[in-house]
Amino acid sequence: MNTEVDPAAAAPAGWRRLGLSERGWTAALAALLVAAVLVRLAVLWLSEGSNDIRTWEGFAQSIREVGVLGTYAALPGFNHPPLAGYYAELAAAAASAAGLRFAPVFKAGPFLADLAVAGLFYRLRRPAGAAAATAAAAAYLWSPVAILITAHHGNTDTVLAALLFAAALLADRGRPVAAGLALAGAVNVKIVALLLAPVLALHFGSWRERLRFGGALAVGALPLLPVVLYAWPAFSRNAVQYNSNLDHWGVPFFLLGLQTIRHAEEAATAALAWFLPAGRYLVFLGVGLVAWLGRSGRRPALEKGAVTMALMLVLAPGFGVQYAIWVLPLLMAASPRHALPYNLAAGAFLLLVYLHFWVGGVPVLSWFSSRLPLGAAPFGVLAWGVLVSYLVATGGRWRAQTGAAPG
Q: What is d(CA 365, CA 357) in angstroms, rounded to the nearest whole number?
């Protein structure tokens, strides 16, 4: 006898036990969802963001003057694919034409990407009923990590996270071409998205599906071709060899701390000198292992995507606070029990960091002028620890499942 409960049938009864009909809960949750959107709009308008928003404004001006290829040579800090640069130029032109500040216009794209993620959560949970689907969308929109990075920070990381989430979701639904195009979109935002390519390629069970996925990824990445042909040395210097900031997050945080301990300084300095160039290769090795263990659809693509991006953040030799959103939609879909503490810890971490660097006044500008404050570090360690816990728990479960059902 099949003892499994159909979630779609069970959910309405569950909502009734809490004292309201499913329709009543859906209406209440929809009001929460609308409130979250209004909060985002308020933060977006009242906030200028971080240094990144000024950097993007500089990119837009350079692209207008010397073109995107010339900007790679002129500005070593321009480490983004060309489409991201063109988006900045478009935002600058739109802001100028409308007489608006650049920051809120630029952040409109990440804002829409965030709404798209909420829509995907709604569709993902819709079989469990309208109330459950609305709750999933509202939970994402009330994520403090998503609110702060999307509406305040001023970068394209929210768009990257949305496209990674879409690619994994499409892979789980057996749509290799659509998944490949979604991942190509992510690559056109930041090339770190390529980490997910082997994981999703091996997710598909046949070579025909893998070729279709790879073909779509290649076609979608065509905007990078002129860069490879005509600006590769500068692009490689700016983007491929980029290692972000050595800061108070993850492994570097602990090694930087050990450098302040008498008699441990020399060993910590040597370990840090080894880890900074080696960290990326540890990430590549881990991603290869994830791809191999999850080949042919053995694990959900959403889970493998969450593991991949969590691995990236755990082992990252460099860090920017906006990276915290990379794993968020995937983790909320794959493991809500880890996503909740991650949201709380990383949200507190981000809030304290932005507050520390706030220059005062409105629109709120957080001008990063040093390493991340040590006062925020405990929350960063907690967020990092949650990701480590997720990797350990998922790895243990995969190992147990492999032992129980080899091959």
A: 8
Predicted local confidence at residue 277, as pLDDT: 92
Query: Count of CB atoms within 10 A of residue 280's CB?
Result: 16
DSSP letters spanning 85-111? HHHHHHHHHHHHHHT--HHHHHTHHHH
Question: In this predicted model, what pLDDT tens digit does every residue of 163-212 receive, in sequence order?
Answer: 999 999 999 999 999 999 999 999 999 999 999 999 999 999 999 999 99
Give residue 1's pLDDT: 35
User: Is residue 78 a contact partner of residue 191, using CB atoms and an 8 Å limit?
Assistant: no
Q: How far apart are CA 19 and CA 366, in angstroms?
A: 44
Would residue 12 count as lying in a domain? no
pTM of the model: 0.93
How far is Cα 275 from Cα 316, in angstroms, rounded to an integer? Answer: 10
Give how many domains the chain has, as a whole number.
Answer: 1
Decide: 10 and 127 in contact? Cβ < 8 Å: no
Parent domain of 43: 20-401
Instruction: Answer yes or no: are the C-beta atoms of 372 and 321 closer than 8 Å.
Output: yes
Residue 309 lies in a domain: yes
Mention every residue, 6+ apart, whose C-beta is less than 8 A from residue 42.
Answer: none
How far is 319 from 309, CA to CA, in rounded Å? 13
d(CA 125, CA 56): 36
- Of 95, 50, 56, 97, nearest to 75 by C-alpha is 56
3-state SS assignment for residue 397: helix
**CA–CA distance, 71 with 291 (Å, rounded to integer):** 35
In a domain, 8, yes or no: no
Question: In the chain, which residues have pLDDT < 70?
Answer: 1-20, 403-407
**The length of the chain, given as a count of residues:** 407
One-letter amino acid for residue 239 of the chain: A
- Asked whether residue 188 is domain-assigned, the answer is yes
